[in-house]
Amino acid sequence: MAIENLHDFLTDYFTANHCGILENENGKVTIQLTDEMDELIMNRPFYWHYIKQIGQQGQPMKVTFITNPDRRDEQGEWVHFGSPRLHQIFNTLGQQGKITRQFEQVDTAMQRSPLIPWLVINLKIIYRGKHKKDELLSYGLQLINGTLVSPMMDKLIKLKLHTGIPDFCYTITPLIRYKSGYQRIIRYVEKYLNTKDYTWAKESWEHLYEEGKLLEYFYKDVSTDGEKQEQLKQSLSEIEKRFRPNISIDIVNGGIFYLSQQTSNTISSNG
Fold first, then answer.
1. Helices 3-16 and 84-96, axial angle in degrees (round to 10)
2. 23, β-bridge pairs
3. Residue 103's closest CA among 7, 44, 172?
4. DSSP labels for 197-247?
5. Three-state DSSP class for 101?
């Protein structure tokens, strides 16, 4: 996965959770956490319990995350796919709720204005084999005309959104059902996967074969030893689990976003 993709995910995640971005340059981002986010990810339960007990204002921390490998030795926390911090953030997404419904907050000048429904899905493609890699993708499907946009979170992060519908606005009933829209996005992802270079999968199969042959060589004289044969069978099974190439799709979160006609047109034309 491209470094920029992971970096954008982190900045989008913290911005969406109302944290301040103090520095954001070349794979290094410094974030001012809110009370809620500090309590959620900074592992300070006793501090926040104490603050709540005495009724005082807490002091949420500032954190610096580094996604650029060339800067990993600088002051800050090195974040990469497979790092505990990233898994923690993925887990908070589940805790915060995987499905949401939000409305763009627009100034209608007291005139009734329509809001267009968009189905937004954020997902993670998990590649496993000799090497491991994750890829984060974000899609938005307009549920009126079927326009598909990616990356959608880059568009939403710039908007003022809220769980309540603004005054003088009304929602347009989707012409595309949610289930159908979801299936369209998944089919698009599958087509995207068909365009990928799978040299890594071939290398994984070759590595699996070589590891298997090496094991069989070491166990070649144990054909009459039932215990050793069972060990060989178990070892071959473990090697296959480790190196057999596999791709899976994990839905991180999603929701229905009602956007103004103007915003919808802009997103569609720039998607």
1. 40
2. 30
3. 172
4. --HHHHHHHHHHHHHHHHHHHHTTT-TT-HHHHHHHHHHHHHHHHHHS-EE
5. strand
CB 3 within 8 A of CB 135: no
Residues constituting the chain: 271
State how far Cα 103 lies from the chain centre.
Answer: 22
**For 207, how many CA atoms within 13 A lie in the half-sphere containing its CB?**
16
Q: Which residues pair with 30 in a beta bridge?
A: 23, 64
By the 8 A CB rule, do 143 and 161 touch? no
Closest Cα partner for 116 from 270, 263, 253? 263
User: What tens-digit pLDDT sequence spans the chain (271 residues)?
Assistant: 334 468 888 887 888 788 999 999 999 999 999 998 998 899 888 888 888 878 888 899 999 999 999 998 999 999 987 788 888 887 776 565 566 788 999 887 778 999 999 999 988 888 888 888 888 889 999 999 999 998 898 888 888 888 888 889 999 999 999 889 999 999 999 999 999 888 888 988 888 888 888 877 776 766 656 677 777 778 777 888 788 888 888 888 888 999 999 999 999 887 6
Query: In 3-state terms, what secondary structure has residue 69?
Result: helix
Distance of CA 117 to the CA centre of its chain: 22
Q: Two tokens at 164?
A: 């309540």
Kind of pairing between the strands at 77-78 and 161-162: unpaired
- Write the CA distances from 155 to 2, 12, 149, integer angstroms: 19, 10, 9
Give the integer Cα–Cα distance in Å for 39 and 36: 5
